[in-house]
Every structure is written in structure tokens, then in C-alpha cells.
Amino acid sequence: xxxxxxxxxxxxxxxxxxxxxxxxxxxxxxxxxxxxxxxxxxxxxxxxxxxxxxxxxxxxxxxxxxxxxxxxxxxxxxxxxxxxxxxxxxxxxxxxxxxxxxxxxxxxxxxxxxxxxxxxxxxxxxxxxxxxxxxxxxxxxxxxxxxxxxxxxxxxxxxxxxxxxxxxxxxxxxxxxxxxxxxxxxxxxxxxxxxxxxxxxxxxxxxxxxxxxxxxxxxxxxxxxxxxxxxxxxxxxxxxxxxxxxxxxxxxxxxxxxxxxxxxxxxxxxxxxxxxxxxxxxxxxxxxxxxxxxxxxxxxxxxxxxxxxxxxxxxxxxxxxxxxxxxxxxxxxxxxxxxxxxxxxxxxxxxxxxxxxxxxxxxxxxxxxxxxxxxxxxxxxxxxxxxxxxxxxxxxxxxxxxxxxxxxxxxxxxxxxxxxxxxxxxxxxxxxxxxxxxxxxxxxxxxxxxxxxxxxxxxxxxxxxxxxxxxxxxxxxxxxxxxxxxxxxxxxxxxxxxxxxxxxxxxxxxxxxxxxxxxxxxxxxxxxxxxxxxxxxxxxxxxxxxxxxxxxxxxxxxxxxxxxxxxxxxxxxxxxxxxxxxxxxxxxxxxxxxxxxxxxxxxxxxxxxxxxxxxxxxxxxxxxxxxxxxxxxxxxxxxxxxxxxxxxxxxxxxxxxxxxxxxxxxxxxxxxxxxxxxxxxxxxxxxxxxxxxxxxxxxxxxxxxxxxxxxxxxxxxxxxxxxxxxxxxxxxxxxxxxxxxxxxxxxxxxxxxxxxxxxxxxxxxxxxxxxxxxxxxxxxxxxxxxxxxxxxxxxxxxxxxxxxxxxxxxxxxxxxxxxxxxxxxxxxxxxxxxxxxxxxxxxxxxx
Length: 847
What we know:
Elements: E1 9-13, E2 38-43, E3 50-56, E4 64-71, H1 72-75, H2 81-91, H3 97-100, E5 102-103, E6 106-111, E7 118-125, E8 137-142, E9 157-162, E10 170-175, E11 182-188, H4 197-206, E12 218-220, H5 222-228, E13 236-245, E14 249-250, E15 255-260, E16 272-277, E17 288-294, E18 300-307, H6 308-315, H7 321-328, E19 330-331, H8 334-340, E20 346-351, E21 357-365, E22 371-379, E23 390-395, E24 402-408, E25 414-421, H9 422-426, H10 432-442, E26 454-455, E27 458-462, E28 470-477, E29 487-492, E30 503-507, E31 520-524, E32 530-537, H11 538-542, H12 547-558, E33 567-568, E34 571-572, E35 589-596, E36 606-611, E37 623-628, E38 635-641, E39 648-654, H13 655-660, H14 666-679, H15 685-692, E40 693-694, E41 699-703, E42 711-718, E43 730-731, E44 735-736, H16 767-781, E45 811-812, E46 820-826, H17 828-836, E47 841-843
């Protein structure tokens, strides 16, 4: 095996947050006069998809554009193209335009279209700011009928590589049919040098990742490659595709297409790079290193600060500093680049561990693609005790917020501060190192305590506090390690102020029933106040004796995320809110529960009882079972139902038990009847179903304490809301556990390890509420961007990382980001993974 097979590169562990917004008609961009012009052509039309080519005129080659497909019936409802364009703009998520816009002549594949349906493919010029720059260009087409043969016969492929640059290209793989699965990837062409056809085929098939099989057109955009897996300049690559499924293996001939990225030109940029321990002034040599760089010819740059031992480990596996930087370096921002190219240059201070050898690496690239890399190794000193002391101020205390200010006795030493419940801090019983361990785990996203340090006076506006709760502001010196004892300041939040907000809940009994759903409208008396809503089994709510108990139920269920689940204004359900796992149990009694919420309940609970819409006739429902993560004693079972929502119970039996009790499917029916009878003393039938059954396709459970070497049989049987069996059991294919040296305890379906004792909670909130969550996330993101304090503390579990070892990079105080690259080299497909699957393939606009 060659050392660099399929671009074996360092896989970055990316913590991505996407700013999400909801549409607001009042803020829709207005259509500007046309500046550019485009032509739209449609080809490769099947019964499920088509490929749309957008061709700009000579003056429009650099203009960005948006392209989509919509059913012609919907398009025809508008008076003219301009009216449709305005409607289309209103449907776009403005925060996602950067991922949707393209430029130049390109092809875009669309899938999941309906057979025998008229469509309109269209494109128009659109900027990242949402400004329209052209008239609507369109072309009509009709998908083939579902009975038409899919063209192509045996599976073949067309591979298109366009928009080639130094680091990326647009890659499209179009199979001859949209049903067969296949695998594609990108590899340096040098990997295959000296191999004959049989050796190339063997090499390619040995690296197929079954989880990333494709159907229909797929590929990578240039933006995707540049973001997740940039190519090397001046390098020849192969795009390859091959039919494959896990049952038959390889199902087609191998198709390969070669291309070369643009070669760099000009001279490598000059780079001055200096590193020393401590901050810019040489303070805090145990917890900081300072990097200074100057490169007047740079147009881009990356920087990375990592423990030297981790870098050496990767280098010893055959990686280069250039590869490490390409796939793990943090890109400099536009502001940082502007500083880098202007004397005296760019300075960044990094928080790092004490007494540790660190490597700092800087890579800069010129306009022609030439690059320069420099690195230095420095070792931080051990943490030294400090005489730092603190003064605290807590003002503007409310039921759920307070302004906290910490003033240290000097402005040079670094320290950490936070706000936590007094009860939690007291539970550590003076174990300061244990508290530090818990804080490091709670703030791991920011690099632990080292990524949260302050110098000089600092303040923070705490929100999301609990009413009438005592808190500590806590602070201690930290410089790669503890330098002072813990200091605390105690305060108590006020009683929660109640609101006069009221709700009118309407259930439309005359509307067409929604399977597993409801036609409901919530109208608050104040459209600006936030409230929580949930659909919860009536039997669960009826067991609660007060509003306080109901509110506590949801606070425990949603935890720190409850603030993101609140909505404002009128809420109205849609049929699409309740599909799949979002469906309620069909035919079961539910409450629509509503109460004002702002850090705590601000109104009494309002609730209305209703019956969730009935599902399809369960008779004849088919079930399939898949087994994964199989070890000697554990297995994950997934259940797929042929229709939903239908209520069913499922489990596994040993083959021996099955035979002992008669060896017919009646065994499973008897077991389900006994199970309902056994739990009926404490739970109602719908509660038992919620704990042990399902009503949507895709239910799964991670079984533990199974018997090594034992054969098990999965089964499912449909029931009604009263627990009565309504169809014959469906028996899945048996599976056998791997053998082991010792046997484990026999599984007891009535023990505390049973699936029934999973946390029983409400079904997920509806799609409309999820959209409101996105809006809330955007609302919170619009507030001053600070590292969030008050993270939920937990005693460290001592859990071990699985898979490849992690390189933990330091935290830059200038941009506050933390990247955790993974120490391994793998294929582009493995790097992009699910982020890339289907991103080239778009679907028609949903109306």
C-alpha cells in the first residue's frame, strides 16, 4: 500500500456552528434592475432527476447566480416571472446563500423529482447580500414516467470536472441510472503509477466505504473541496466511480477521469515568523506563547499551534508540514491578513499548557499559489504561585440574569472566573483540582479553562439563571495550572415575575386529519412574549398534580436548551410538522401544553386535550431489521416499517427461548400480551408503547448483556392504542453473537436494563417549532459574541476517546477558536463524509 493512498490526510474534528435564520417577509430583498444575463438548459432527464446547465453571457461570467427547479403547476400561479422571483427570494434562507450561489458556466444535478411531472428550471443573478442582478432565465421539461426504462442499461458513468483552480474543482459524477448504488472518490494519480488494471481495481475496491455509497448524480463542489479537503496545486488527480453494493460487491466497470489542478506561479512569499513564550510583553510564560508574523506578498495564510509531540507523531507516519497545515491550520481572517501584510505585522497570543513543548507553524501563500512555511518550537515554564486576589461586583440582579464584574489585584496575571450554583460548587467539598477537572470538561469546546482566561477587570452579563437560586461568582488564578486558591462571592436571584400573558388554543376538528398530528392554533395575547409549547401524552400529564410539576418535567427534559425552544407570536401546525419521528402516536390522547417561559415559567400552564390523527391500516405492515455494532455481548437493532405512523411493539428473543415456547410466531404475540399485563399495574397501554414500542420507521435500541455465541431472533407486531394485537407478528432474520471466552449475564426483559426504562419523554417538537428554534439561535447569535459562561458542570467521567488519537490545539486569544484535528490520513470521501453526500445533488423547491 502506498503511503499516500487516496490523499491520506489529517482529518480535522470540526466544531461547526451555522447561523440560521427564519424568513421574514418584511425584510425580503427588493428586485433590482437587471445587470447580467443567463441561459438555462436541461439534460439527462430521468423519472427522478435532471441536470440543469446555467450559461452566463460574456458580461456575466463572474456574476454569482442561484438555480433551482419547481413544479410547473406552482410556477403558473404567478402573474409573471418577476412575481415568482419575489416569492422565491422570500423562501430562501439568507444565511445559507454562501452555500447556494455559483458563478460561471456550471451544471447542477437535481434529484428526488416526481415522475411524469412538468417542471420549470430557472436561474437568476443573485449576490451574497440577496440583491437580484438579472432577469429570471428558465426552461421547462417533463420527467419520464415511472414505467419508462431508465436509460443506460448496465451501470456506466459520466464524470465532469470543471472550474479547476489551484486547490479545487467542481466534480460531477452522473450514473446511467438512479437506482444502482456506487462509490466515487478522488485520488492523486501518482497512487496508480506502475499498476496494471487488475491492481488498480483491487486498490480502489479495498478502499470503498459502504456508508458513503451514492445513488443518482453526486459529486463535490469546488467550495466544498476548498473548505474540507483542498487539493494540492499543480497535481494530477483521478476521479473514479464504480458500481458497488454490500450484497453483490462490485457491479460495474471502473470509470476514471484524470485532471490536473493549476500549477503555482511566481515566487514564494517572504515570511518573517518569530515565537516566544508568554504574551507580547513576556508575561505568563507558563500559559501563553506569542507568535509574530510579517509577509507583504501573502494573499492567504494559516496558523497552527500544537504540542510538538503530536506533530512529531504525525510526521513520523509520513505526513509533511504542508499537509498538516493544509488540513489542520486555521485560516487567517481578512482582518488578520490585512495586518499580516502591513508592517510591523500580525501578533497572536495563544493559551497553552504549562511546562509543555509546543510547535507553532505559519503558512502563507502568494497570489500565484506559491507558499512558504516556517515553524518554531518553544517550551512553556511550569506554573508559579501568585498573590493575585479578587473583588466582585454583581448588579442588576433579576430572576434569571445578573451583571457580574471581577476585578483582580493586578492586570498582568491570568485568571478564570465563572458563575455556578452554590449547591454545585459546595458539592466539591473543597476539592479545587476536582473542580478544575469539571470546568475543563464543561468548557472543552473553548479549549478548557485555558481558553477562558482573563487579564485585568472583566465582566459578563449572565442570563438563563434560575429564579430564587443562590449562585457563586468564582475565580482563581490560572497560568497553565492553578496559581491561587478559589475565591467566591455569593448572590441570590429574585423571585420570578409572573406575566399576564394568556393563550387561546384552537383544535380544528373539521380539518382533514393529519396521521400522527393535529390541526391546532395557539394565539398568545402578546405577540412579543416568548412561550414554550409541547405535544405530550395525556396519560403522562395526567400523572402530574400541579403546574410546577409540569414545568419541572419540561425543564428536566430540555435542560439548558429550553431557551432555544421558545416561540413568539401565533403558532399554527402544518401537516408536514408531524412526519416520521416527529409524528405523535396515531389515535392516542395528547395534551397541547403551553406556558410563558423566560428563564422560568411566567404564566400558569394552559393545556388542551386532543386525539392525534389516526394512521394507515396496520394490517400487512412489513418490518425489516438490521444489526450493527455487533460484539460478543452487544448489538444495535434498527427497525424499518413499510408504512408510518403505525403502532408496533418489537424486541429480540433467543432462538432457544423461541423453540422452548413452541417455535411459532404465536410465541411473540403471547409475549407482548404478557408484557402489557405485567406493566399494567403502573402504566397505561400508551405509556408502555412509548417506552417499549414505536410508531415510526427507524426505531432502534443498543442491546447490552447479550449472550456470546447465542442466536437471537428480532420480531415486531402491530398493536392499537389499547395494547391489542391487530396483525400477525413479523419475524426477522436471526443473527448470532460472536463467541467469547466468558459468558455474560442472561438478559432479563423485566430488569432495570430493559428498553422500558429509557427516559420516557414527549415526542420531538413539530417542524414549526424547530424553525422557531433556528430563529432563536439567530437571535441569540446577534447578541455580543462572547464565550458563554455558566456551562453545566459534571464530575469528569474518565471516558476514553475512541478511534484515532486527537491532536488538541491551543486556543488563540485573538479569534477565540479551537480546532481539534485528528491524527490520521484518509480519503477525500472520508474527510467530507456526510457533509458532502448529496450536496451536489439538489432537490426541487418545496412549496
